[in-house]
Design goal:
Elements (H helix, E strand, L loop, with lengths): L1 H16 L3 E6 L19 E10 L2 E12 L7 E11 L5 E7 L5 H10 L3 E3 L9 H6 L1 E5 L3 H7 L2 H10 L4 E6 L1 E7 L6 H33 L1
Antiparallel strand pairs: 1-2, 2-3, 3-4, 4-9, 5-7, 5-8, 6-7, 8-9
Length: about 220
């Protein structure tokens, strides 16, 4: 109970500082707000400390998500994720999960059971940034590998590998999700780092998407 109260206090202060609205607990089946989805969504998860707002011209959502993952012949795994979602200005991006190897075997087995089309794309980044390829697993549909490689530039890979390897990331259509998995404590610094990397990555992806569309238009002429 003490940790729960401390988490609530820190998140409410963060929300106030950055102009977010704090809603607390939300019901994924009944709530009217557009809730955070992503690879951790399930019929059994519980979301607390839900906040929404805007920062640097991006819509922002924040939530603490808890769930117990169960896989045959494996012990249950209890997870808590702090998730920050940043909406992009442009959509249509392929789904990709950039995993910093913070999860256990049950998580990965459950992930690949639910997303059977996901394949390991990490090797395509070895020539671009070997540290990124060693630090993160990159999972995406195999038929989207070329798009993923174009989307995640060398600058993005370098920044994540050198400065933000403590988080996991998901990109899906028109949003970026930043995951802090089972944080020991929710602190102002943790939240501000998630906001910093989330808005930076969203800005980079918006720029890359615009440049890619310009190239496609040019090539079609």
């Amino acid at each position: 109970m003490g940790r729960e109260l401390a988490t609530k206090k820190v998140i409410k202060r963060f929300a106030h500082k950055f102009g977010l609205v704090y809603f607390g607990y939300v019901n994924q089946r009944e709530d009217e707000h557009e809730l955070i989805r992503g690879i951790t969504v399930s019929a059994t998860h519980v979301d607390r400390h839900f906040c929404v707002g805007e920062f640097k011209n991006h819509d922002i959502s924040l939530v603490e998500r808890r769930n117990t993952l169960v896989y045959p012949e494996q012990p249950p795994s209890h997870y808590t994720w702090l998730i920050m979602q940043v909406d992009l200005k442009r959509g249509g991006l392929p789904q990709v999960f950039i995993d910093g190897n913070h999860h256990d075997e049950t998580f990965y087995m459950t992930l690949f059971m639910r997303f059977a089309n996901m394949s390991n794309a990490s090797t395509i980044f070895a020539p671009v940034n070997p540290l990124f390829a060693r630090t993160f697993g990159v999972f995406a549909p195999a038929d989207k590998f070329d798009e993923i490689e174009a989307m995640l530039s060398g600058d993005i890979a370098a920044m994540l590998a050198h400065h933000f390897k403590q988080f996991d990331y998901e990109i899906d259509r028109d949003r970026v999700l930043v995951y802090a998995e089972n944080p020991t404590a929710v602190t102002p610094h943790l939240l501000q780092e998630m906001l910093r990397v989330g808005t930076w990555l969203a800005g980079q992806l918006d720029k890359a998407t615009l440049e890619l569309k310009d190239m496609q238009v040019h090539d079609s002429k």
